[in-house]
Amino acid sequence: MNKIGKRSVILLLIAAMIFIPFGTSAIAQSKNMDNDVSGEAMAADFLVIRPLGIVASVLGTAVFIVSLPFSALGGNTKTACRKLVQDPAKFTFTRPLGEF
Predict the structure, then answer these.
(1) Whole-prediction pTM
(2) Once rounded to an integer, what is the mean pLDDT over residues 84-89?
(3) How many domains does the chain have?
(4) What is the pLDDT of residues 21-50, one digit of tens each?
(5) What pLDDT does 30 receive?
(6) What are residue 86's phi and psi, to 5 degrees?
(7) Distance from C-alpha of 57 to C-alpha of 48, rounded to nearest angstrom
(8) Are 94 and 52 members of one domain?
(9) Are residues 48 and 25 in the same domain?
């Protein structure tokens, strides 16, 4: 590649590195943060997702109790509790209806 071509490529790369963060912030600002949840999403959440979340919470608790001796030996009881019990419970009981 000749000298002018190399300089052009380097200049293009520098310009891209400078202007890409500005472009991504402009895209992020242009997205409409609409908090309106549709009735269909709420109904699907209430009728399908929440019952599945309750099942996941019960099964996660059961798996945690069964795996408790092994996680205690491994020293990761808090992590196992968070992943198997707390996260499914938060997903099921504390998030707003219709927000997945």
Answers:
(1) 0.61
(2) 95
(3) 2
(4) 766 665 565 555 556 888 999 999 999 999
(5) 53
(6) -70, -45
(7) 14
(8) yes
(9) no
Q: What is the CA radius of gyration of the chain?
A: 24
Tokens for 51?
């019952």
Residues 64 and 100 in one domain: yes
Range of the domain at 84: 35-100
- Torsion over CA of 26, 30, 31 and 36, rounded to 10 degrees? 150
Residue with tokens 């709420």: 42
Could you give the CA distance from residue 7 to residue 10 in angstroms, rounded to a whole number? 5
Question: Which residue's structure tokens are 């590195």?
Answer: 17
pLDDT tens, position by position, 66-84: 999 999 999 999 999 999 9
Instruction: Compute how many other C-beta atoms are within 10 angstroms of the C-beta atom of residue 88.
Output: 20
Do 26 and 39 share a domain, yes or no? no
